[in-house]
Amino acid sequence: MDEYDQVIQALPSWLARPLLELPSTLAPQVQEVRLRVGCTPMFTVRGAVYAPQELGREGKALQTLRLTPPQMEEILFTLCGGSVHTHQTEIAQGYVTLASGCRAGLGGQFLQTAEQGIVLQELTSVNLRIAREKTIDLPEELRAALQEHFIGMLLVGEPGSGKTTVLRSMAQELARQKKLVSVIDERRELFAGMPRRTFPGEALDVISGIPKGQAVQMALRTLSPQVLLLDELGGMEEVSALEQGMFSGVDFVATLHAGTPEEAVGRPQVQALQARGAVKVLVWLQGRTAPGQIREVRFL
């Protein structure tokens, strides 16, 4: 069963049935399914967005579907496994992570309250990102860099360019090298639902479900890693935590949303790390039309 089918089966049956009618050759290529109030479901395939009528006759049942606000509420309820309350922390950050490791991004009207923090008042869109158990062959120069004391490495690409896939492949390579690796997986996307046999000797320690800055500090205190891996480098708190690791001799690999290397190095977080000599390698991905493909490995 393809990961697309696993994700779709997490939706209400009235929506899952027509979505599962996609051709078997097409479903493995779907990267995202976008659900919006008043609109028919849309599909991202190889970086391009398609309406159901553009995918062949199998999408006919979806062409007349226009999602309503009550239906969107039911979709969220089902994605949360019938317990929206247990996912409130994630929802406040604009997403829900499914058991498969796939993430559902949420759009709508949020409200900041003194008592409850950020709450979702009205859901208007859901973006289901299909996370697949896929790894790639890393170029020789990147494998060689991972064998050394590289200090800091940034994996740069636009949304949908396969940063998570490449980061997972790096984790496999580091495990093969028998390095002690701590993975900071705040949103439970990197390895949720994946069999542990994927990694030689189960040579990874994973911390998930808490903010990355706190998780990095926890890993440094308790897990004695040689390398830290984290998805989506965020604010200065995470930068400070990575600096602590650097001063302890711990290397790190972090992903970063950016269209070009120049855009990446212009970010305040990256400039702060560079000022301390903490970024030595930059890996730039091709883009959303060729997810997981590496365009350049640049040594700084």
Automatic annotation (TrEMBL):
InterPro entries cross-referenced by the UniProt entry: AAA+_ATPase, P-loop_NTPase, Spore_III_AA_AAA+_ATPase
Keyword list, A-Z: ATP-binding, Nucleotide-binding
Superkingdom of this protein's organism: Bacteria
Statement: the UniProt record of this protein carries the keyword Transport: no
AAA+ ATPase domain boundaries: 149-288
Any one GO molecular function term: ATP binding
One Pfam entry name: Spore_III_AA
Keyword Nucleotide-binding: yes
SUPFAM superfamilies membership: P-loop containing nucleoside triphosphate hydrolases
Protein known as: Stage III sporulation protein AA
Natural source organism: Faecalibacterium hattorii
